[in-house]
Amino acid sequence: MRIGCPKEIKNHEYRVGLTPESAAELVAHGHDVVVEHGAGLGIGAEDADYTAVGATLAAVEDVFATADIIVKVKEPQAVERARLRKGQTLYTYLHLAPDAPQTVDLMASGAICIAYETVTSPFGGLPLLKPMSQVAGRMAAQAGAHTLEKAQGGRGVLLGGVPGVAPAKVIVIGGGVVGRNATAMAVGMGADVTILDRSNEALESIDTQFGGTVKTLYSSKSALATAIATADLVIGAVLIPGAAAPKLVTREMLKTMQQGAVLVDVAIDQGGCFETSKATTHADPIYVEEGIVHYCVANMPGAVARTSTYALNNATLPHLLKLADMGVKEALLSDPHLLEGLNVAHGKVTCEPVAQFQGLDYLPAHEAALAL
C-alpha cells in the first residue's frame, strides 16, 4: 500500500504525521511511503532522513494524488480537503462536531476518514488522543502562567507566589487526562489548585494521586460559578468523545471574575467549554472578553512539535500498520476499537455524536465498513 504524508499547513503547526522512524517501519512492512518535501523540518527531520529509510519525496499534489492512505496530524484545511478523492483513506485528527464546513467537504470527497480522537482502547480511554491531551494539559499550565503576566494583559500574578505572597488560584474544569496533567504542572509550579469533575470516582482518584495537595469539587453549576469568581487562572479540560464540548462557563459568569484573570480553553478543538471561546493561533493566541484574557489556541501541542510528534507516532503507528497490512476494510472489521475512529465513509457521517450535533443522517460505522 502507498502511504502519503503531507506537510501540515495550519498556522504554526510544526508536527508531522510520520517521523522517519515510522516511515522506516512502514517500508519494512513492504509499503511505499511518499513524504512531501520539507514535511519533517518542524521536528528537525530533514528530507534526507526520510529517503535514507526508503521513503520517496514528492510535491504535495503528488502525495495526495498517489497515496492510498493520507497520514496527517491536524484536520485537513480546505485546500487539502479538495485534494482528497473517493476511496482514499484519511487518518488524522478531525474534531468534526463543531466544524460543519469540514464535515460537508469530507462527505463530498468520498474519502474514508478515520479520526484519531475517537479511536478507543480495550483498556478504556482514547489512546490516540491521550498523548496530545498530556502535552496540551501540561502546556495549559505554562501558557496560563505566561498569560497571567501583566505584559500579556493578565493580573500580574506569579503562579507559585513567593514567601509572604499567596500563590495564584488555579481552577481546572475536568479530571481527565488534560485536567490531571494541567494540575500536575500547576501544583509543580506551586499554585493553589482546585479541580472540578462530575465523577466522584475521578475526584477520589485525583485526591489519592495528589496526596491531598489539590482541592476537589463536584462540578455543579453553582460550585463552578463560586470557584471561578476568585480564580486567577481557569483551565477548561472537558471532553465528550466525538461531541462538541459543553459551554460550562457563561458570559455572565465571566462578569463575576477578577479583571485580568485568564481562561485557557483546551477544549477549543471541540468548540470550547467557555461561552466566549473562539479559536486562536500561536501567532495571535489571546484576546479579551469582559476583562478576562482568553487563550484558545486550537493546536497547542504544535508549539512543542518534536515532543508531540514522537508521542503521537508512538500511539498512531500500530493502527496505521494494521490499516496498511490488512487493508482498511479488514482492519476496521477486525478491530472494534479502531472502527470507533471511523467518522466519515460513503459520503455519510459514521460517528453518531457528530451526526446528532450537526443534524445529519447517521450511517453506523460497522455498516459502512462492511460496504467498503
Verbal overview:
This protein has 372 residues and is α/β, with parallel strands linked by helices. It is built from 15 helices and 15 strands. The protein has 2 domains: 2-119 and 308-370, 3-Layer(aba) Sandwich (Rossmann fold), CATH 3.40.50.720; 130-298, NAD(P)-binding Rossmann-like Domain (Rossmann fold), CATH 3.40.50. It has helices at 20-28, 47-51, 60-66, 78-81, 100-109, 130-147, 177-188, 200-209, 221-229, 251-254, 305-326, 328-334, 336-339, 352-358, 365-370, and strands at residues 2-5, 32-36, 56-58, 69-71, 89-92, 112-115, 169-173, 192-197, 215-218, 233-236, 262-265, 286-289, 292-295, 342-345, 348-349. The strands form 2 sheets. Strands 3-2-1-4-5-6-14-15 form an 8-stranded mixed beta sheet, sandwiched between helices. Strands 9-8-7-10-11-13-12 form a 7-stranded mixed beta sheet, with helices on both faces. Helix 6 (130-147) packs across helix 7 and helix 11 (305-326) packs across helix 12 (328-334). The chain is globular and about 65 Å long. The two termini are 16 Å apart. The mean pLDDT is 97.
Keywords:
eight-stranded mixed β-sheet, 15 helices, alpha/beta, Rossmann fold, 372 residues, seven-stranded mixed β-sheet
Could you give a quick summary of the protein structure above?
This protein is an alpha/beta fold and 372 residues long. It has helices at 20-28, 47-51, 60-66, 78-81, 100-109, 130-147, 177-188, 200-209, 221-229, 251-254, 305-326, 328-334, 336-339, 352-358, 365-370; strands at residues 2-5, 32-36, 56-58, 69-71, 89-92, 112-115, 169-173, 192-197, 215-218, 233-236, 262-265, 286-289, 292-295, 342-345, 348-349.
